[in-house]
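Sequence only, no structure available. Ideas?
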Amino acid sequence: MTEAKNLPTVKSLKDRLAGATNVTTQNIEGKIAEFEYYLLKQGYRESTIKRYTHEMEILHRRGANIFNPESVKATIAKQKWKDSRKLGVCHVYNAFLTLIGKQWEQPRYRAVSTHPFIPTKSTLEQIIAGAGKKTSTFFQLLMETGARSGEAEALTWDNIDIERCVLRIEPEKNSKPRTIKVSRNLINRLIGLKRKDKRVFGKTIYNNRRTCWGHTRKRLARKLNNPEITKVTFHTVRHWYATTLFHETRNLPLVQRRLGHRNINSTLIYVEIEEELYLQSPDDKFICEFADSPEKAKNLIEEGFEYIGELYGDPTFRKRK
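Reply:
I predicted one. Tokens follow.
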């Protein structure tokens, strides 16, 4: 009996597993931090690095062993995400596998191309009128420039030309830089924000602004009895801007330049959306012009007129008022 008392205490299986879990969690968190630094060294943009590390953290929180491709594959399959989201997470994990020197058989998810939701102008104006000072200014900036939310968040005080009412948009996602004229009202609202950082809207942690907007839009939708507000995201404003600009000008190259697209194929979707939303509108009014020379036809096209055929032998063009 005396010998039994002197035997070393043996940890229960539960205690040993708990300790192993803690070590694994620390290893995973450390590897995600290493992944963030790896992406930085590879030249990824700040917004992309934040999104990639955020997705890896989500996989970890939802039970995936990020060192085990089969575990990651099973975790992704269980999520109620659209296939396009699952495919995006697979691309993120591909980058992580490069870091740890492993490979996997990527799941066969396919992104389904769909037309984006386009809010009405009145809905966006309700948001601007009902949201807080910074959020409403952020939305007005998106409405007047068509910038991506990341581009708007990156706007610095140096990018604002107060005298000429011009904003310089620094691009993301391989877009082109843009210089866009905006309203005096927007300029006044921007300079009315507190200067706490070189960025106009201050430093933000990834997804914080979107999370805050998620709460705000639910409140506004209830208050204004407008359920459409719950479907509005920062990026839907960009879609609204592009569709509206094309409807007003019929100038696809102009829309391409304003959005910063390098390939006009990325802009063509707004032609289809505009046709669906406006083609049968009874409010459509047009300016019609005839071209009696190639030079005049060229000038009309450059001004945004659309060729619709010949009338009495002359090429006929139109543009919405």
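The longest helix spans residues 13-41.
Hope that gets you unstuck.
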